[in-house]
Amino acid sequence: MNPLRAAILRGARATPRPGAATRGTRAGDGFVFSQLRGYVEGDDPRRIDHAATARVGALQTRVYLEETSLVLAAIVDESGSMSVGRKRPLAAAASEAVRAWFGALEGEDQAARIVDERVVRDRRAAPLVRATAAFRFGPALAIALRALPRGASLLAIADGFDLPDDESLARAALRFDATVLLARDPWRDDLPLRGIVRLRDAENGRTRRVFVGSQTRARYRIAARAREAMLRARFRDAGWRVGVLDEGDGRVSLLHAFGLPA
After folding, report:
1. What global pTM score does this model have?
2. Tell me: the pLDDT tens digits for 173-214?
3. 68, 90, 115 — which closes off a domain?
4. Are 121 and 41 in contact (CB under 8 A)?
């Protein structure tokens, strides 16, 4: 099993919060026993095999067939602001992350790409399909909550300018193993503008002339960092796994979100 899929599987089968039930279907629902393995933090205690534990001398968990398959779903922001970048568009890194995400599929795993208010389930098409309508995170997440099974693994890639309400984010984290890659502002550390410049809004195309001096650049740096920290805290408080999408490499950004080396 590749490391990314193994990490996704652990997350999908963990409890969403201490004391909560597992997200996925539990033993006794008619699924076929697959194997015994060592207990991993987050496993449902009801699946501990006490006889095997006594023989081995360490906690052993019963794994059922449904636990070895995954549903990998993705919501990807394709708005105009994702077309910006210092050296290349954030959208290019987002595409790399999505390809790596669906590239983790194996065996009976299923794909689900939510785009244009529909769900694309073809494993080959899911990493490649592109939106034709404006991106709206809230409606996309609502579709996920209706269409995806409990215990699915959901990846969202977004710049944070259009977010669902906190209740919807929390509901998603309880139902799915939810991960977000927040697109990092390419000019978070240094706004490369001086003097009177013409700025264009990446979302609506509107332009205006502004003066950019040292104080403006300093205020922008502080505001960009504060905004990123606020977004990270908001998703974490809702129960999501949070990573940062760096324009340099989307695949590495995804691996780092799961605590994996590049």
Report:
1. 0.80
2. 999 999 999 999 998 888 888 889 887 776 777 888 888 889
3. 68
4. no
